[in-house]
Design a protein that fits this description.
Blueprint: E1 10-18, E2 22-26, E3 31-35, E4 40-47, E5 57-59, E6 69-71, E7 75-84
Antiparallel strand pairs: 1-4, 1-7, 2-3, 5-6
Length: 92
Amino acid sequence: MAEPIAARDWHTRARVRITAEVMSRSVEPYTVHTFHPGDELEMFQWGRAGRSVDRSAWWTSYDIDGAHIIKAENVEVLEVLDETSPYQESEA
């Protein structure tokens, strides 16, 4: 089944816990970081109106080049800090 299409720009900012050891690389500046189970940090998901709503990964930053990206299966959401739904209110 295809992912739903966002009706508007959206984002989720959350406090999360890493559930598995994960190594991630950023592009600019190039850095390698290993996240460990139990690490807690603030992470983000976001997307644009008219594109598929993809919640398969969490990002350490909105900076596409500087962010470290972790698959959602390795992240436990502890608290949603801020969120704008990708759907119109009547669709939610």
